[in-house]
Structures are given as structure tokens and as C-alpha cells.
Amino acid sequence: MNAFILAGGQSTRMGRDKALLEFQHTPLIARAVDCLRSLPLSARICGSRPDLARFAPVIPDRFPGCGPLAGIEAGLAATDAALNLFIPVDMPDLPVEFLRWMIARAEASEAVATIPCLGGRAQPLCAIYSRRLAPGLRSVLGSGHYKVMAAIAAAAASLAERADSFQMESVAAALSPGLWPMNPPLRQWFRNLNTPADLELESAPGAGGRNPIS
Question: Is omega for the bond preceding 184 within 30 degrees of 0, making it cis?
Fold first, then answer.
């Protein structure tokens, strides 16, 4: 399996570059790279960001300006692995234990997409995708539609396949205690750092944030 970090956003709401934003004294991009390497997987960065090449190899978008869907397509176009893990650069609370569990689920099911859902919301930027989805994603991007979930569903349908979308709360309730860490709590795992207020909240005492590779 290969692993990719989605880091092509403009950071307009944050007002400064999120990838290089320091969180707990470490740039977010460095935390994400370390998280993937601890699985252990080699990390590559999706996004037209040659300045991030000092952290990991960079794969430029083939559809510039089309959001994270373009990063997923670029990663799948470049991969030599059947299944590929994607995480966004701005989710510092994703636990390695959960990612390792999701990898095992994807390898067992061989689904073309393995996507967690929390609170009824899909999290398609932290997911595992088959490289077989690449042609379908290119078709969607070429038509001018950039919604990630709709594109994944369309690409999967073109292969006569369906995504494996699972509810985090139901899985957590069924798992053996301790298999998934509860610090930070489940509700924080997919919290994006989009604004200065998000960063302040996440960094506040008692917020529950931690190093995902600890």
C-alpha cells in the first residue's frame, strides 16, 4: 500500500500556510509524514507544492484548482499499489492505531473505496482508494465536478463496485476495549484546522490533542 498527504489547499480561511503551520512545535506536514511512516508506509505529498519536497516527494495536481479531488486523482495516477491511503495535512489528531485498523479492513474487503463516517458525515479525505478509480475520477474532473464523495461514487459505479463506508461510532462500540485510543476522543479525530479559532481550540489546555504517533 502507498500513502499520500493531501496538501494542495490555499489555506484562505487560516490566513497562512497550513502545511507549514506549527502544531505542538511541529509543522503539520511533518506530523503527517511521521504518522504515515510509523505505519510504516512511505509518504508522498499530493498538491502543487514543490516547496514541501524537503519533507517527502511531491506529486503535482494534474487538474490545478480543482480541490482535494485533484490531489486524490494525482496520487492514484502515480501509484503502483492496488490500494492507497490518503490523509489531509490538517487533521493532526488522527491516531495511527485507527489508520492501521482501516488498512487491515481495506485489505480484507478489497473494496475500491474504504471511507469512514462520523456523526453521519463521510470523511473521504481520510480514506483508502483503489487505483482502479483513477480513470473515473479523471472523467469527473474533466466534466467540471469536484465534489469528492459524488466523484468516488461515480467512479466506483463505472466499475460496477460500491464503496465500503462504515460508521465510526458503531465500529467503536463493537471493538475490544483499547484497540482504538480514546485520547483524543473519537469526535476529534477528523477535526480540520481550517481557521485560527480552530487552532486555538485544538491547542487549548484539556483539548485532548496529542501526537498521533505517540
Answer: yes
DSSP single-letter state for residue 49? -
Residue 160 CA to its chain's centroid (Å) = 24
In a domain, 209, yes or no: no
The answer to whether residue 34 is domain-embedded is yes
Q: What is the dihedral of CA 128, 131, 137, 138, to 10 degrees?
A: 150
- CA-CA distance, 214 to 211, in Å (whole number)? 5
Residue keyed to cell 488522527: 94
User: In this structure, is residue 213 part of a structural domain?
Assistant: no
Q: Looking at the DSSP assignment, which residues form a beta bridge with residue 122?
A: 117
* Domain count of the fold of the chain: 1
Q: What does the block give as the cell for 32?
A: 503527517
In a domain, 203, yes or no: no
- Grid coordinates representing 159 are 466499475
Dump pLDDT digits (tens) for 67-103. 999 999 999 999 999 999 999 999 999 999 999 999 9
Q: Give φ, ψ of 82 to 5 degrees.
A: -65, -40
Domain CATH code at residue 93: 3.90.550.10
User: What are the tens digits of pLDDT across the range 21-80?
Assistant: 888 889 999 999 999 999 999 999 999 899 999 999 999 999 998 999 999 999 999 999
Domain containing residue 159: 2-196
Q: Which of 214, 197, 201, 195 is nearest to 11 (CA)?
A: 195
Instruction: Quote the cell numbers at residue 201.
Output: 481550540
